[in-house]
């Protein structure tokens, strides 16, 4: 097979590195990041980059300890645990400081039976399988509000505490409420785990993955 | 290991099927889907579900032949080709009518060399490797504007035509322009391939995957 590129018909930037530079500059020119903690600015920029929406900034709530806690955990080799294979797929392995494990247990053979027995979603049941890996892990929810609620209930029951929680489940049923519950966890229970939340209905796997990719290393 | 569920602390819907039903009902109550082709209504609803934003409807541009062309292609066993592993990861295999192949060639060993030789992105170079599979395929762009531009240039150069193009690349550099170029392809060149586009900067892998999941079968 002899491959040749098609004739150039459109004018567009083809240099990947330049696309990143121009994208991040556009975001910084347009987005109001004043409410974002100083050390989380690159996290916010990368999340906006992933969704194409500068107004995401207004829905970001970031714990002041989020970046330092998540980054030092990853630099110590902590695993990333997530509720969705799409999130795991979106983590750029080359950015991980210690070739950290990235795990989604949704397809574990125990999950369907637990979900049935506990009358909950598979996404939530899978979170119970995180228990032995939770201590000091970086966890990310890019899909299921029930999974985030389930983790919060585990923490209230005394489960090991992760180093950071990326809370960006998406949707119309329970998403906003689960994220508010994460924000309220420390004030209500004293369990103070650094978090990042996109309030409201907005969220998703790309937001969770982009936050993880920004937390993985300081370099853009 | 004896597993027990955590004590229920929050009030939330835990039945997965009910979450879908309630979500889709909320979307239909709130979103203005009047401009969406009748047979694409479920596609729009599922895309809104994936991003949590009812105003997505106003940015959807859907070719009147999109649903019939994509669905009959998939029912005939056509492959799905996509620019991003996250999109491939988001396709619910159980919904595919013929256990269709879902391919992303971004990690093909030929890609880095082609991208270098052609001075373009890896995402774009990988699209050239689709050539032998393009005829009648369903293709989906959930990430890279350069990849969509590259396919449009291949089509103008006489490449085999896919059955449908899901055009939801995301971002600040080239995304809006690449999607407008897809809309303009038929009027400008006579190459009339049914498409779905989210105009503007918004887009991403979840939108592409949710569109594919809705196209895969009529049943919600």
Automatic annotation (TrEMBL), chains A, B:
The UniProt entry, under InterPro entries, shows: Cbl_synth_CobH/CbiC, CobH/CbiC_sf
Q: Which GO terms describe its biological process?
A: cobalamin biosynthetic process
Give the record's pathway. Answer: Cofactor biosynthesis; adenosylcobalamin biosynthesis
Q: Which SUPFAM superfamilies match?
A: Precorrin-8X methylmutase CbiC/CobH (SSF63965)
Q: Does the keyword Isomerase apply?
A: yes
Cobalamin biosynthesis precorrin-8X methylmutase CobH/CbiC domain segment(s): 18-217
Task: Please give the superkingdom of this protein's source.
Answer: Bacteria
Sorted alphabetically, the keyword list is: Cobalamin biosynthesis, Isomerase
Please list every transmembrane segment annotated in the UniProt record, as residue ranges.
Answer: none
Q: Which GO terms describe its molecular function?
A: precorrin-8X methylmutase activity
- Protein family (similarity comment): Belongs to the CobH/CbiC family.
Recorded protein name is Precorrin-8X methylmutase
């Amino acid at each position: 097979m002899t491959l040749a590129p098609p004739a150039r018909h459109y004018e567009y930037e083809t240099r990947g590195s330049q696309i990143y530079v121009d994208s991040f500059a556009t975001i910084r020119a347009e987005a109001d990041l004043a409410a974002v903690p100083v050390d989380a600015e690159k996290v916010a920029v990368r999340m906006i980059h992933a969704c194409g929406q500068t107004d995401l900034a207004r829905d970001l709530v970031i714990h002041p300890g989020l970046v330092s806690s998540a980054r030092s955990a990853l630099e110590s080799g902590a695993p990333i645990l997530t509720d969705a294979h799409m999130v795991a797929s979106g983590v750029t392995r080359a950015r991980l400081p210690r070739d950290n494990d990235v795990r989604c247990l949704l397809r574990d053979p125990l999950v369907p039976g637990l979900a049935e027995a506990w009358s909950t979603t598979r996404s939530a049941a899978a979170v119970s399988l995180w228990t032995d890996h939770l201590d000091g892990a970086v966890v990310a929810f890019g899909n299921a509000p029930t999974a985030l609620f389930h983790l919060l209930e585990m923490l209230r029951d005394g489960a090991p505490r992760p180093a950071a929680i990326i809370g960006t489940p998406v949707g119309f049923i329970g998403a906003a409420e689960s994220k508010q519950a994460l924000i309220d966890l420390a004030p209500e229970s004293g369990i103070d785990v650094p978090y990042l939340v996109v309030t409201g209905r907005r969220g998703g796997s790309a937001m969770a993955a982009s936050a993880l990719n920004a937390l993985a290393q300081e370099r853009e």
